[in-house]
Amino acid sequence: MEALNRGSMRSQSSLELLVTLGFGLIILLPIVVLAFIQISNSTSTLSTTEAQAAAQKLASVATSVSSQGPPAKQLVLIQVPQDIANIYVGSLANTAGHEIIFVVNTNAGPSYVTAYTPVNVSGALGSITGQGVYLVNVSAQSSCPTNPATPCAYLAST
Question: pLDDT band for position 1 (50/70/90)?
């Protein structure tokens, strides 16, 4: 009889432990899910902020080089964050324009990060989609490759 009592006490202790652990996991699971969502949002915000810094840097250098006129050139080092889908120079059609646009993939869909330049810009940076440090050649052109009638700053990855 004594052995029977010990067995039921052990099973009762085991059951109590399982119930306690179950409640602990039920409480802990939403906290873990919220933490992962917060980390994901932080990553998207960081990528967007880094893309804005890179776009502003390119716009500033393009303005400077264009104001010097042809044959002025400058190499600029930019840090491209993760989740970049595309980079447009000039306009979304990659024709001469006044914007440098980074398309960042976020949780809410694509986000367009834009830097405005007072000068015409054109270029081919669409091949830069991976995270990393890239060297970009910015040169003043008397006629844009995409619109020969206008002078511009041309941006090309090296």
Answer: very low
pTM of the model: 0.74
End-to-end CA distance of the chain: 85
CA atoms within 13 A on the CB side of 12: 6
- CA 55, 57, 58, 63 torsion: positive or negative? positive
3-state secondary structure of 2: helix
From CA 68, how far away is CA 133, in angstroms rounded? 26
Mean pLDDT of the chain: 86
What's the CA angle centered on 120, arms 117 and 123, to 5 degrees? 100
Is the Cβ–Cβ distance between 82 and 44 less than 8 Å? no
156: tokens are 């090309």
**Contacts for 81 with CB less than 8 Å, ≥ 6 apart:** 46, 47, 50, 51, 54, 104, 131
